[in-house]
Design goal:
It is found in: Cytoplasm. By secondary structure, this protein is of the alpha/beta class. The protein has helices at 124-142, 145-151, 162-174, 188-196, 235-238, 253-256, 301-317, 362-369, 404-416, 467-484, and strands spanning 3-10, 13-20, 32-36, 39-46, 52-56, 62-70, 72-73, 79-80, 89-90, 100-101, 109-117, 154-158, 177-182, 208-211, 214-217, 220-225, 242-245, 266-269, 295-297, 319-329, 356-359, 377-384, 390-398, 423-426, 442-445, 450-453, 456-463. The strands form five sheets. An eight-stranded mixed sheet has the order 14-15-16-13-12-17-18-19, with helices on one face. Strands 20, 21, 22, 23, 24, 25, 26 and 27 form an eight-stranded mixed sheet that branches. β1 and β2 form a beta hairpin. α3 crosses α10 (467-484), α7 (301-317) crosses α8 (362-369) and α7 (301-317) crosses α9 (404-416). The chain is globular. The relative contact order is 0.11.
Length: 485
């Protein structure tokens, strides 16, 4: 019987798995991320031929996927997973014990067979984490055009703040090549320190150092600049075709376009822009037109949470009107103790001491990415004393009557299908810290929502406002590159 070779990249060794020909195997055009058994698993490539390269890191113990079971559509659009496929023949890496589990998860690309790795030495997941970027590049060279495409995206990060540093982490995990960083207020040695240590997301497990005037992360050399003006930075010399504008200052098309003077090709603004086209992955990225768009916005973290949920609800039941409240983690713009804030007085109160009402344009921005909802949504925010993870409360009136059970079913179907990796679904008794490090944009909390009647509902969805959003910036970069090549 002929077979397809699957490569598991774990702890510096290659573990081969023979999978019978014809076994269901999806072809993924972009990196997909999953949470399974409290372990973050990143799939870098899943092509049936010539090979499948998979990595896993983080979580409590490490589970590596041997393959995936494709979600099959049954009659009337129902979903069913194949049940009787033969198990793959697994050959373990030296020094590791293996066990095979056939537990399924309710996802469109669901893990079917897994290897639980145990070792008396360092946990395999940590070893894989440390060497992940190098192996991602190897996967890109050997697994086919899909992976090679991702590694060809040359990115520059403008500002090494919270989002800038996490965008770098996301790009490294997804195999995007970051070639330059600019921050006029942070020198090279301090960059090493700030990237290595993170009070919220933990220490970076890979190698980070300064060498020959560059930031080197897992062997990736990144040029460092300290220019005040975007027009002064030689992006072209550094090979940076795509710039992530993460200062929060150069938001308009006119201001962000100064990056192009140094040789950059495209600019992604990691914040809402007053006039740049706005994109939310999973919602309207298909509207990106490389012929006419050089400056684009990735919207806000809250819009990235709200828009996928609003799209599912509107597509299935219609939204007549709605109000959104985001209970939002504090951010770097707030004060640790009471201080001056002339523009918004309440914003100057101590972030750790107060629940602070604040304005947000996130709900109105949904109308820019879903034109049918323009003028139908608005909202506000409460800044609360947590460092990361926020939650959206969408209260809306439906055009088509629906029970709460029907709403849950619609959201789950989208989370398991076309919005997998963007929209999540959980019925667990979760709290905010459970979503630190979650790469999805929006995780619907089925147990937290309520309905007054079949036309008036309150829906709840969580999001890591830092890392989830940073992953969408990286995904938008990959999407733009794919549309242009």
């Amino acid at each position: 019987m002929r077979s397809i070779k699957t490569i598991l990249v774990l702890e510096g060794a290659r573990t081969g798995a023979q999978i019978p020909e014809g076994f269901p195997c999806p072809s993924l055009t972009s990196t997909q991320a999953f949470r399974w058994l409290q372990c973050k698993v990143t799939v870098t490539q899943a092509l049936c031929n010539p090979g499948v390269w998979l990595l896993c890191w983080g979580g409590r113990g490490c589970w590596a996927l041997a393959t995936f079971a494709h979600l099959h559509r049954g009659p009337q659009g129902s979903s069913s997973l194949p049940r009787q496929e033969p198990r793959p023949q697994l050959s373990a890496a030296k020094g590791l014990q293996e066990g095979v589990s056939d537990h399924l998860t309710p996802r469109s690309w669901a893990p079917r067979f897994c290897v639980q790795l145990k070792s008396s030495r360092e946990p395999a997941c940590l070893a894989a984490d440390r060497a992940a970027p190098r192996r991602l590049r190897q996967a890109g060279r050997q697994a086919g055009p899909g992976a090679a495409m991702a590694s060809s995206v040359s990115v520059k990060v403008f500002s090494f703040g919270r989002i800038g540093r996490l965008v770098l982490r996301a790009c490294l995990q997804k195999g995007l090549k970051v070639v330059a960083i600019n921050d006029p207020f942070i020198d090279l040695n301090y960059m090493v320190y700030m990237f290595k240590y993170d009070s919220t997301h933990g220490r970076y497990k890979g190698e980070v150092k300064a060498e020959d005037g560059k930031l080197v992360v897992d062997g990736n050399e990144i040029s460092v600049f300290q220019c005040m003006k975007p027009s002064e930075i030689p992006w072209g010399e550094a090979g940076a075709l795509y710039v992530v504008e993460s200062t929060g200052v150069f938001l308009s098309v006119d201001k962000a376009s100064t990056h192009l003077q140094g040789g950059a090709k495209r600019v992604v603004v990691s914040a809402p822009s007053p006039d740049a086209p706005m994109f939310v992955m999973g919602v309207n990225e298909d509207k990106y037109d490389p012929a006419h768009m050089t400056i684009v916005s990735n919207a806000s973290c809250t819009t990235n949470c709200l828009a996928p949920l609003a799209k599912v609800i509107h597509d299935n039941f219609g939204i007549v009107e709605g109000l959104m409240t985001t209970v939002h983690a504090y951010t770097a713009t707030q004060k640790t103790v009471d201080g001056p804030s002339a523009k918004a007085w309440r914003d100057g109160r101590g972030a750790h001491q107060n629940i602070i009402p604040a304005s947000t344009g996130a709900a109105k921005a949904v109308g820019k990415v879903i034109p049918q909802l323009n003028g139908k949504l608005t909202g506000m925010a409460f800044r609360v004393p947590v460092s990361d993870v926020s939650v959206v409360d969408l209260t809306c009136r439906l055009a088509k009557p629906a029970t709460y059970a029907e709403i849950k079913e619609a959201v789950k179907k989208a989370a398991d299908g076309p919005m997998a990796g963007i929209l999540g679904y959980t019925e667990d008794e979760v709290v905010s810290s459970d979503f630190i490090g979650d790469t999805r944009s929006s995780i619907f909390d089925a147990g937290a929502g309520i309905s007054l009647n079949d036309n008036f509902v309150k829906l709840i969805s969580w999001y890591d406002n830092e890392f989830g959003y940073s992953n969408r910036v990286a995904d938008l970069l990959s999407h733009m590159f794919s549309k242009e090549n």
